[in-house]
Amino acid sequence: MLDFLIDNIFVEFGGFIFQQTVGIPMGTNCAPLLADLFLYSYEAEFIQNLLKDKKKKHLAKFFNFTFRYIDDVLSLNNPYFSQYLHLIYPSELEIKDTTDTRRTASYLDLFLNIDVDGRLHTKIYDKRDDFNFPIINFPFLSSNIPSAPSYGVYISQLIRYSRACSHYTDFIYRSVLLTQKLLQQSYEEDRLKLTLRKFYGHHHELVDPYDVSLTKLAKDIFITW
């Protein structure tokens, strides 16, 4: 079955049908699982070889805080990761190091920063922020989408921001951008405020670390622009 899936991938373009012989196209149902299993097979073999080697067995513990989601890898406090990278993955795999500095890096939708005291701080990372053109996302209320799920997007993003942002200022920055965008897409300010109240009431544990009241939260988000 696996051979059939890989050998029978066809793409139509410009009136012609092409067979893909290298890689797996994005969007194929099996692609994420196959990519995950493919990389895991190399990672598992690497760790097993380390554990079998008495001289290198102690290095395995440095990979305890190494994580991967599909093809994005994060390795924390591991001075040996780059040194052994070529032994983990096949040479055909193109590896791109996206580490900014020794203390900062982006991983998935997070920007990570380790301060001088060794504490880890996170905030939202969105590569679309660097695009020089507007991004169309989130539902427009002028469309045929029901309003209830549309406003549900607001609360879901607030939950995401509060979980990802260590600092209140970063949470507010993202929340203000989101609120501005939704208001421009015909959302009602009063209903957004009501949704914010629901978020604060139902997910208070997420904003407790910020130590802010609902009044201050609403004031900081619904500023005048």
Automatic annotation (TrEMBL):
Q: Which residues form the Reverse transcriptase domain?
A: 1-145
Matching entries from InterPro entries are given as: RT_dom
Q: What is this protein called?
A: Reverse transcriptase domain-containing protein
